[in-house]
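HUMAN: Can I see a protein plus its fold?

ASSISTANT:
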Amino acid sequence: MSRHIIARLKSDEMRRSASDKMIANYLERNLADTPFETARSIAQRVGVSPMTISRYLRRLGFEGLEELKAELRNSRSNPAWQVKGQMDRFQADIRDGKLLANLLHQHIDSLSHIYELTASRQWQETIDALIAASEIYVVAFQNVRGIAQYFAAQLSYARPRVQFVDGLNGTFAELLDGSVEGRCLFLLDVRRFASKARPLAAEAQRAGVRVVLLTNDSCTWAHEVSDITLMEPSTQGPLWDGAAVSTIVIDLLISNIIVLLGSQVDERVQQLTRLQDMFGDFEP
């Protein structure tokens, strides 16, 4: 982590007032999680206003929280979705039930933010895009690859011409060759972002492909390369950056689409069930 930021937080200049000291103490203790915070969430935890946080960050040498996040992300050498904190403390917490109870409460809190997301204009635009697209290509990398594969597989029960693209051909030509109009790229990229995600989204836009990006507020380039951006709430668990939020969001997307497509989904599921029975993939 950037040593000069910590040194600056400990300086007398950054601890002039009582609110200065509270903010400095909070940031110093939680600097590793700051890339996943918002000015509002920090303000709520410290007990000051978001404007006070913004003014403090400017004195710290940053135009805003996004600039601080970018520096912290660039200075990190930890692997994506790392185990954080002291394992001895976690082991003690799990024995008396505190750790799992805290994680459960965090998931419950995330659900309230997901509900707000489902009521947003971006949510409806995403639903419309996924229904109207001639073809849907789902892409994700590293840790969230499996979630994206699940999304593609489930969505293919609701509508045809959905596929997960792994990019192992080195070109993403099936998405970018321009042979079919009305294509949509559904890109899932959260937390420590994949190096291929941003250039792929930009190239897709240049190829006339509509880009839907599911990410979180740690992403600083989201609106530059996407037609629709869904910002899921950032998880801030003390132990592990889990995938529960992303999984819930994509399950809700699929459910929303199924309801709107109605009888079309029934017909498709009946057809797929017949094929499954014919090829014997499932037990009777």
Notes: Confidence is low (pLDDT under 50) at residues 77-81. The radius of gyration is 22 Å. The chain has two domains: 3-77, 116-279.
